[in-house]
């Protein structure tokens, strides 16, 4: 019986040594980055963007957070505020040097998410700051296609007036006009047909 106990203790020591060795190798070859792995607290810039608070974003900026910080999900803060319709946050981040055309999760862009939601004022700010009206996102969709498909006439107008190319196609080969027709957004169809 004592032999079995000693053998089990010896095997347990070998197991612990093997586990410790593997853990050391993981640290050497796969350094742990809590933020990149989706763990831990997001910085103030990201928290401010998610909570529509310029005050929190400014605190983060003062403490050294970048206006190009990304959420755990991979979205730049500018995409977060644009998607939330937080115009003040968009203006703040532009003033702090946020990169206007940065892509986020699923190749989304700030202009693309604002167009999809129909946030005309945000589109104007982004375009004035140099956003590319023809930058593609997921499924090779340009902001104009996203606005037209979702029925946002004013967003379509803002994009066209700022140089969006109406004949861009997505992965399915459809244009903004094709999507507007398919979704029965007649005012957008009429407007886009008048641009031809």
From TrEMBL:
Keyword Aminoacyl-tRNA synthetase (UniProt): no
Matching Gene3D superfamilies: Ankyrin repeat-containing domain (1.25.40.20)
Signal sequence interval, chain numbering: 1-36
Domain of life where this protein originates: Bacteria
One Pfam family hit: Ank_2
Residues in ANK repeats: 106-138, 139-171
Keywords assigned: ANK repeat, Repeat, Signal
Protein name listed in UniProt: Uncharacterized protein
Organism: alpha proteobacterium IMCC14465
Species classification: Bacteria, Pseudomonadati, Pseudomonadota, Alphaproteobacteria, PS1 clade
């Amino acid at each position: 019986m004592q032999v079995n106990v000693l053998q089990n203790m010896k095997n347990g020591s070998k197991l612990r040594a093997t586990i410790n060795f593997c853990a050391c190798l993981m640290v050497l070859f796969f350094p742990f980055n809590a933020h990149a792995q989706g763990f831990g607290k997001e910085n103030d810039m990201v928290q401010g963007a998610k909570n529509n608070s310029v005050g929190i974003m400014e605190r983060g900026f003062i403490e050294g957070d970048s206006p190009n910080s990304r959420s755990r999900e991979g979205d730049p803060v500018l995409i977060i505020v644009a998607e939330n319709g937080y115009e003040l946050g968009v203006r703040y981040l532009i003033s702090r040097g946020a990169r206007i055309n940065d892509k986020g999760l699923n190749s989304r862009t700030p202009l693309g998410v604002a167009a999809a939601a129909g946030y005309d004022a945000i589109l104007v700010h982004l375009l004035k700051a140099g956003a590319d009206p023809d930058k593609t996102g997921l499924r090779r969709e340009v902001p104009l296609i996203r606005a037209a498909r979702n029925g946002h006439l004013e967003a379509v107008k803002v994009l066209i007036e700022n140089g969006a190319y109406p004949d861009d196609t997505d992965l399915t080969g459809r244009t903004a006009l094709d999507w507007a027709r398919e979704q029965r957004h007649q005012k957008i169809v009429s407007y886009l047909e008048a641009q031809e």
